[in-house]
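HUMAN: Please help interpret these tokens:
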Amino acid sequence: MEQKLEKPGQENKMRDIKIEKVVLNIGGTEDKLDKGVILLQTLTGKKPIKIKARKRIPTWGVRPGLEVGTKVTIRGEEAEKLLKRLLPVINNTLKAKQIRDNFISFGIAEYIEIPDMEYIREVGIMGFEASVVFVRAGKRIERKKIKRGSAKKQVVNAEEIIKIMEEQFGTKILRKRRKEDE
């Protein structure tokens, strides 16, 4: 016998979806890396971390321990404000292939297109990637060490993310046409 926990007209709070974090990253070495750190620090007001390579790729001159990028993570209300600032740069449109389960990712070609952002002489013209991670309440179950479980019900699928982006942020989603539609 199945028992219904929620009353009619009442929503289940555990199914609510929220933005967990926004991650901005720039790849590069030496001079480009230093410029990337300055850009991310100016954009977010937080101190970015440098990412070190783990593998050796001889054709690109990459070796373990070499700094190959920088990133900064923004959480909470700041993450939502930053996302609202970044979406106009990409004309508030996303391609369907940029949306996956639990996250969306997009690139920004030039930081000077961001509203209220001025040209930084030390940096020049530079772009970066942004990833937005969505989460439901209870996702911590997968991350904790004791009694770890798999929370399949906690996955935020692509269709739910599309709905949120269209309703809350007014984002237009470009879907790929099928051959039979033409």
Summary: The longest strand covers residues 17-27. The radius of gyration is 20 Å. The chain has a mean pLDDT of 85. The CA atoms of residues 6 and 12 lie 7 Å apart.
